[in-house]
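Box 3.1 A note on notation
Throughout this textbook, protein chains are presented in two layers. The first layer is the amino acid sequence; the second is a token string describing backbone geometry. Keep the layers aligned when reading.
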Amino acid sequence: MAIDKIQSESINLADNFAFTGTVTGAGGANTPAFEAYLSANQTITNETDTKVQNNTEVYDTDNAYDNSTNFRFLPTVAGKYFVYGRTLADSAAGNCREVKAMIFKNGSVIARSVVNFHGNDGEGASPMVTAIVDMNGSSDYVELFGRHDTADGSNDTKFQGGSTERYTIFGAYKIIT
């Protein structure tokens, strides 16, 4: 017997229901989606916004992340995306003043996270940045940038990479709306 209409006052939410037909209009997929990490240290220039070269993919559902040339996510499905990134920047001299992680959309910064040591030198920091980004599904792209400022202006700085621990990461997934 098919159920044509259920009255809201007769539903017991503790019951289990077995459906044999097709349910439409429910759920969705959080794709395209990807996550990538930096597998080895990336040398960077002090006080310079630098694109993070997250070169090792954990997953990439739609082959929308370029992990070898542009290091950017260019989804082919329009929608809202949750984008996240983390940079671990440090210096051998232990003279870190500020570390930034930034999400760029189409070449411009749209979100930024900063760890500032306020005049006290530190060894390094790992800021996390997140944003919800509208993407058009054809030409919009996002990238992860970082910046490391040292007390003495030295260029012995790097984004920390690793093959067993994922210190520096970048990822995104489509939000179901």
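The mean pLDDT is 87. The chain has one domain: 32-174.
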